[in-house]
Amino acid sequence: MIYIISGTNRPNSRTRQVAEHILRLYKDKTHDAEIIDLATLPFNELASAPYGSQELPPDIQKAIAKIDAADGLVIITPEYNGSMPGALKYFIDHWSYPKSFEYRPVAFIGLGFRWGGLRPVEHLQQVFGYRNAYIFPERIFLSNITNVLVDGKITDEAVAKLMEKQTSGFMKFISALKSEKLHSNQI
Ligand SMILES: Cc1cc2nc3c(=O)[nH]c(=O)nc-3n(C[C@H](O)[C@H](O)[C@H](O)COP(=O)(O)O)c2cc1C
Fold first, then answer.
1. pTM of the predicted protein model
2. Which of 47, 75, 85, 160 is deepest in the core (most CB within 10 A)?
3. pLDDT tens, 133-183?
4. pLDDT of residue 148
5. DSSP-based three-state secondary structure for 141
6. Which of 5, 14, 113, 151 to mutate to test the pocket of ligand 1 (most atoms within 8 A of CB)?
7. CA nearest neighbour of 80 among 36, 43, 46, 110
8. What spacing in Å lies between the alpha carbon of 120 and ligand 1's midpoint?
9. Domain extent at residue 177
10. Atom of ligand 1 nearest to the CA of 143
C-alpha cells in the first residue's frame, strides 16, 4: 500500500485536495493507495502522551502502523513560514527509527505561493535523508497554488503531466527496490 500523507491539519486544506488528485492517479494505475490526513488525527490527545510513550492515542498508533508497513510514502506538504507545518513534523517525531524510516521509499510534493513548497520539501529531504529513507529524486513543486488548483482540479497541463510521471516513476522505484530485496519491508 502507498500512503499519501496530507501534511497539514488545517481544515479544508488545499493539501488534502492535492492528495485526492494523487490518490486517483495511483488508483488509475491500479496500485493500492490511501490518504493519511493529518486533519483527522487527534493531536490534542497526543499532547498529553509523552514522547516515546507506548500509550499514544489509538488513531495515531494506527496511522504509524500504516507508515511502518508502507510500500511507499508520498508526502504532500504546504509551505508554512518557510518550512513544513508543525503538525507534520510533530507526527513524524512520533515515528520509530529505524522501522518507520530506514530503506522506506518516499516521494515529495510541495505547494505554496511563489516557491511552490521548495523549502518544506528540502527540509523533509534532510529529515528523511538523515533517517536513511530512499528518497525518490523527482519532486514536484506547486507554485501559485491558488491558480494551479481550482475546485480540486489541476489546471496546468504541465503540472498534471509531472504528477503522472512522478506516480509511474515512484511505482517503478518501489518495484526495483523490492526486486533486489532492498526495501524496508524486506529487511
Ligand atoms: C500558517 C501559514 C503560513 C504560510 N506561510 C507561507 C510561506 O511561508 N510561503 C508560502 O509560499 N506560502 C505560505 N502560506 C500559504 C500556503 O502555502 C498556501 O495557503 C497553501 O494553500 C496552504 O496549504 P493548505 O491549504 O493545505 O493549508 C502559508 C499559509 C499558512 C496557513
1. 0.98
2. 75
3. 999 999 999 999 999 999 999 999 999 999 999 999 999 999 999 999 999
4. 97
5. strand
6. 113
7. 110
8. 11
9. 2-186
10. 11
Whichever domain contains 8, its CATH number is 3.40.50.360
The answer to whether 75 and 5 are in contact (CB under 8 A) is: yes
Which residue has its alpha carbon closest to ligand 1 atom 3? 80
Quick one: which atom of ligand 1 is closest to the CA of 149?
21
Please tell me the total count of domains within the chain: 1
Query: Do the Cβ atoms of 2 and 32 come closer than 8 Å?
Result: yes
Q: Any idea which residue has 526495501 for its cell?
A: 183
Residues with CB under 6 A from ligand 1: 8, 10, 13-15, 78-82, 111-115, 145
**Closest residue CA from atom 5 of ligand 1:** 80
**Which amino acid, 150?**
V
Task: Identify which of 37, 80, 81, 122 to mutate to test ligand 1's pocket (most ligand atoms within 8 A of the CB).
Answer: 80
Specify the residue for cell string 528540502. 122
**Beta strand 105-111 with 72-78: parallel, antiparallel or unpaired?**
parallel
Q: What angle do CA 149, 9, 184 make, to 5 degrees?
A: 90
